[in-house]
Amino acid sequence: MPSGPLKICVCGGGSNAHLVAAFSASNPDAETRILDLNEEEAKKWENLIDKKEMVLSINEDNGTKREVKAKPRLVTSNPKEALNGCDLIILTTSAMDHGKYLQAIEPFASKNTVIVGLPGKPGFEYLCYNILGSKADLCTFLSFEEPSWSSKIVEFGNHVEALSAMQVLVGSIVRGRGICRRPPLMCLQMIHGSKPLFRPSKHFLEVTLMPNTFFCPVIIYGQWGKWDGKPVSETPLFYHGMSKETAEILNTCSQECLDVARAITTSEKVRVDLTGVQDLYQWCIERFKGDISNNADLYTTITTNKQFADVRHTMKEVDGGLVPDFGRLVEDLEAGLVVIKGIALLMEVPTPKTDELIGWCQEKVGKEYLVNGELTGNDVATSRCPQRFGLCTIEALVNGKIEEH
Prior knowledge:
36% helix
């Protein structure tokens, strides 16, 4: 194990970046840098850090709250300054911003580079190989299902609140030919403490095919699929306002994910064990253990989860009231549903409910990915589906490396 502090670069400027940076910087054995490519935002954060420490407020399971102080070493928009000698580079941004951060990282990637998507979202590995090119074979990539904690910024640059943690967080590890200076999973556990438990998957496609990908788009579809287009007077609850019919759609999409995973596991062309892919009910039970008051079925598991209690739909004001803001569906499509569909097509697994969902979502955001059941739409080129990267065989799909390019 190398001597000296663990050197971590946290990429991003939102609440998740504040959270991970504060957890890291509160650990005396870590040296934390923050790379925020928004130059104006980075300068503001840097000036605030120079004046006083960050505060991390952590909500404990017993209802109490504790505060810890954190002092990042620097905040910058300069990749060279932030990335030099880092043991771990953690992307905390929306999947839509992963590309520009990976492009900023590429000139400094080496045999010791470890890049973590926290979360990574489906197709993360494909994107890494696409942008880093030949350097990707030397790097190690980790991709996690969700953020480690839900969080909110209390005061930009100075104060972030850790609201609730996942109990378990499963992540993939794709190891390159280089040697990690520090064991990456152990490093993540060290800076976060006991929660969540970071657990490795057997294969990166296990994380890609976890059915949490469907969570948000199905709930949005369930709430607004039959909407008459007229403004409403109040913002509906997101998870706790969902219907039993929506829960059934989630179950159906979950099963389609399992069908794809099973097809890969049983394929005679590759040897990949994806039996770790869970249905959505099991996924929720394990990750939100202790937060669910009624786990009789998927519907009650979601609607009695205290972590979900106050979450509401994203809305925008118009004359006459409020209408849904469907903008977030672009990320759900390009780094989610379209990736799942691309894998299903390669495995020749029918996914009628996923197709229906993609069709509705793409219409709401004015995009085109799926046309007559095939990924031939004009916007496939901005998605992370394997076909976009030239991965058109089962072997290439499970290898994840874009050798054709």
